[in-house]
Every structure is written in structure tokens, then in C-alpha cells.
Amino acid sequence: MAPIWLLVGLVFFFQNGFLSSGISTNISMKPSEVQIGGIFTFNSSIGKVAKVAIEAAIEDVNSDPSVLGGTELKLVTKDVNDSGFLGIIEALKFMESDTVAIIGPQTSVMAHVISHIANELQVPLLSFSATDPTLSSLQYPFFVRTTQSDLFQMAAVAQIVEYYEWREVIAIYVDDDQGRNGIAALADKLAERRCKISYKAPMKAEPTRDDIRDVLFKVLLTESRIFVLHTYAKSGLDVLDMAHYLGMMGSEYVWIATDWLSTILDTNSPLPPETMDQIQGLLTLRMYTPDSDPKRKFVSRWGNLTKGSFGLNSYGLYAYDTVWLLARAINTFFEKGGNISFSNDSRLNEIGGRSLHLDAMSIFNGGKLLLKSILGTNMTGLTGPVQFTSGRSLVHPAYEVINVIGTMRRVGYWSNYSGLSIERPERLYTRPPNNSVSNQKLYPVIWPGQITQKPRGWGFEKKQLRIGVPNRVSYREFISYEGGDSFKGYCIDVFFAALPLLPYQINFKLIPFGDGRNNPSCTDLVRLINTGVRI
Questions:
Q1: Which of 161, 286, 479, 511 has the fewest CB atoms below 10 angstroms from its CB?
Q2: Three-state DSSP class for 514?
């Protein structure tokens, strides 16, 4: 009988993966705990809220035995203090400690780098705040975005621009992956609506006041007065402070801030009075999360979790749901026969892994199955339905459109389903989609300078519109030049009658074309305009 028992033992030994494609460690099929990691910046507006929300979610998951059937989630978090280098180091450390998934990183810049590590070692990376639309599942299959992509936020901005009949905007942004790629998405979305970015004004990730002033001086030389500000919290407020100092918050200016501004207002409200005075009349966006009993209970619980030290923002809600999404996916992983085991990566040894201590990192053998379980999860969380489309975006992307007056005043919603509306998005989902221009609607906005009339969108202070008028000798009842700046005729009457109908004022001068003895050629006039010759 001894040989038979030896054979059975060897079969068991090989089936559990100890001698597969490398040396493996193997935890039981249903371990008592599963370790997950967290990488973000603890003292940032997003990070400090996310830390509390994630820890609360871990507690809630572990206190509910029906979620993981007795297995507990063990969370290990690392503060990277906005450093990409520290983010890489901490991610590598997680890969040495049998971590099955990482929540984070917080920024898109860090996500681009760490996703390469996640791909190699097959550890899912779930980010509740990396919104760069170029974080593609094709390039980074183990990166999972558990929040809304900036692709949808920029679609909302573009539709706002079209709604107010503006055609050109100036983009002021941080010159990094998130800033550049977000503005590239905005350019595409504006082009779909026959609008455009007339000038791009990039800034350093941590600009000084002098840097900001130099950027805004260049912006002042342009004609457009519609500014889209896509940046981070600290630099965003610094830009608005300098803009206020330079007189760029008057009645002829429009500022549209992406959701960094609503995040600050939700988290750190009330801001100092001087800061609030500087941002009156701005538009900003906030990720929309539908009202529900679980959300109301969590909001009422938030004061006890933080002792009232800071508020709850949308990213905190997505961070909370990310933990529950991962917990349910881990449970599905076990139900499908998944086993938590790790193998050495032979390629790390080939490049000198031992001298660099890379041999301590291991591949998560169940990474692909866990990733599939994550993407297949369908649940309802604090943010509403949590489910992924075939393109790995969350279903029902939507934003609130906020007018900063006093604090924050919602003037409507944007959804990928029906565009701009004063009705909550979930009500629209029960009807056929209608994205037509005539169906778009927002409540009235109070703009910078406390005006209610829509700003024209650009200024002509530095450039006069020169309009060529044929100096004809026939059909003078249509157009006749009377000398000086005087013109008469039917066409001139129509021109001046149309001016009050424009949504803006123009600075112009009528210029006679022709010698008054022969009818001038309109073809010659068009040719001169095309070649840039002044008449």
C-alpha cells in the first residue's frame, strides 16, 4: 500500500501548483483572511476622504459574514504623499506580500506607471480617482477604473459650451498625463459639436504664482473669454486667485472648472470668505450619485467617522463602493474554484532579479480569474448601479452642473443618455434617449460679476472687425457709399437691423471697396480677404 499512498501524495502536491511554472506559495481554498493594498495620498482632498471611506467599507464587509463567508479582508494602506516614485516603491512592496488586489493609485500619472507592474504580476488595480481617459484596458488589462472617466466629464463640458452658443474656449490645465489627455478628450468632444479650443495654456504640476501669472498674461492676449480650468485642487485655487487679481473675473468672463472645484467645496467647506468671493459665478461639475437609503445613512454616519473634521465628496462614495465591489468579486472568485497562490516570475530572475531583490515579487496565479470576477460584478452601491460596460466604463455616467453662488447651486444635470436636463438622470432612463439641441435645458446661471445675461464669450477690444462694402455705381438703392463713414441702402439697413439680434456685441468698421466710377468685382474682394490684403 505504501507506493499507492506515495503516488496519491505526489498527485496532490502537483495539483496544488507547488511545482508549476515556478516556486509557489499556496494558501487554502478559503483562507481566514485576504490581503488587499491601498495606495493614495492621505492629506489630499480626495485621499483623506477615501481613506476614511475605505476603512469604513472594510469594517462593514468584515462585519457581514454573508459577503465572504467568514473570510476577512485585511487592508494595508500606504501614503505616497503625491510622489510617483513612492507610489512605484509601495506597489513593488505589495507585490512581495501576497496581495491579491490594490485599491488605487489616486492619480492618473501614477496609474500609468503602476499599471505596468500590475500587468506583469497579474494583480488587479482598482482606482476610484484616476480619470485619465487614455488608461485603456487594451494597454492596461489589469487596471480597473471604478469611477467615471474624464471622457464623460469633457463631453459634459462640450455640451455646456454648445448650449450657451459659444464656439471657442481656452483650456488651462496641468501639463501631465491627466491634464493633457483630459484636454485632448475635450478637443474631440468640442469638435463633434463644431466648437474648438482656440488656445491651450499648460502649467507645471506645482506652479508658482509667477508661473501662473505668466500663463494668464498669455491668455489675456487671446480673444476668447471662455476658460476651462482642468487642474488639481491647490493649483486650481491659485489660478483663480491670480485671475481675480488680474481682473479676469468680471462680467465678460466665463470660467468652467472641472470637478476638482466641487470636490474642494464638498470636502473643505466653508472655504475662507476671500476665497469664496473669488469663485462666485463659476460653473463646475460633480459626479452624480442618485439618492438612496444606503447613501443617506452613510452621509449621516460620516460626521461620526471624521468627527466633523472634513466633508464627504463623490470620490469618497466611489472609494467605499470599490471595496464592496472587490469583496463581492473575491467571493465570486472563491465560488468559481479560485485559489490564492503565487509563483515566481522567471523573467525577473533572468534580468538579475536576485541582485535587485526582484525575486521577492511573485505573480498572482488567480489574477485573471479575479479580474474577470471584478468586471462581471453587478451590484448597487452608494453611487448607484455598479456594473461595467463592454468598454469597462461604469454604466450611467452622469454629472451635476453646479453654479457657485454663495456656496453651490445646482442648475441641472448632464448624462450620457440625454445630455443636459433639469430632471434627475434616473428619471430619464425610463424614456427613450433624446440628445437633440432643443431638448437641452439648464436653470438660469448667475455669472461672474453677478450678471444673469449670458456673456458673449469673447472680446474685440484689441481687434476691430473690418467689413468690406462694394462702392457701386449701379443699384445704389441696395448699397451706396455717401463718403466718410456713411453708407445707405437696403443691405445696410438689413445689416444694422440684424446687429441687435446677435448674442454679443462687435466692434466693426465698414470699409468702401472700389473707386466709385466702376462697379467693383466681388470676386476680387474675396480674393483680397483670402490673401490677407488690407483694403
A1: 511
A2: coil
Measured in whole angstroms, the distance separating CA 187 from the mean position of its chain's CA atoms is: 14
Integer Cα distance of 13 and 449 in angstroms: 75
Query: In terms of DSSP bridges, do strands 72-79 and 143-145 run parallel, antiparallel, or are they unpaired?
Result: unpaired
Q: How far is CA 12 from CA 4, 15, 334, 420, 492, in A?
A: 13, 5, 19, 61, 95
Q: Measure the CA–CA gap between 332 and 67, rounded to whole angstroms.
A: 10
Task: Look at residue 503 in the predicted model and tell me its pLDDT.
Answer: 55
Measuring CA to CA, which residue among 341, 359, 363, 362 is closest to residue 350? 359
Q: Quick one: which of 240, 324, 319 has its CA closest to 287?
A: 319
DSSP string, 300-349: HHHHHHHTTSS---HHHHHHHHHHHHHHHHHHHHHHTT---EEEE-HHHH
Residue with cell 485603456: 136
Q: Is 297 exposed, middle or buried (0-12, 13-18, 19+ CB in 10 A)?
A: exposed
Strand 125-127, strand 398-403: pairing: unpaired
Calpha distance 199→187 (Å, rounded): 11
Q: Read off the amino acid at residue 308.
A: G
For residue range 415-439, what is the model confidence (pLDDT) as tens digits? 999 999 999 999 999 889 888 888 8
Give the predicted TM-score (pTM) of the model.
0.82
Residue spans of alpha helices (H) in 63-97: 65-68, 84-94
Residue with cell 485559489: 339
Coil, helix or strand for 145? strand
C-alpha span between 531 and 534 (Å, rounded): 9
In the chain, what is the greatest distance between 2 CA atoms, to the nearest angstrom? Answer: 123
- The residue whose grid cell reads 501669472 is 213
Asked if 128 contacts 146 with a C-beta cutoff of 8 angstroms, the reply is yes
- Closest C-alpha to 44, from 268, 218, 237, 270: 268
Count of positions (residues) in the chain: 535
Contact, 124 vs 114, CB < 8 A?
no
515 falls in which pLDDT band (50, 70, 90)? confident
Beta strands in 49-163 (DSSP E): 72-79, 101-103, 125-127, 143-145
Q: Which amino acid is at 271?
A: L
Residue whose grid cell is 479560485: 338
**Is 45 strand, coil or helix?**
helix
Q: Which of helix, strand or coil describes residue 259?
A: coil
- Among candidates 228, 239, 174, 178, which has minimal Cα distance to 199? 228
Residue 60 to residue 66: CA distance in whole angstroms:
11
Taking the C-alpha atoms of residue 172 and residue 186, their distance in angstroms, rounded to an integer, is 12
- For the chain, what percent of residues have pLDDT higher than 90? 64
Q: Write the CB contacts of 497 (distance below 8 Å, at least 6 apart in sequence).
A: none
Distance CA 125, CA 111 (A): 9
How many Å apart are CA 521 and CA 513, to the nearest integer? 9
Backbone φ and ψ of 343, nearest 5°: -125, 150
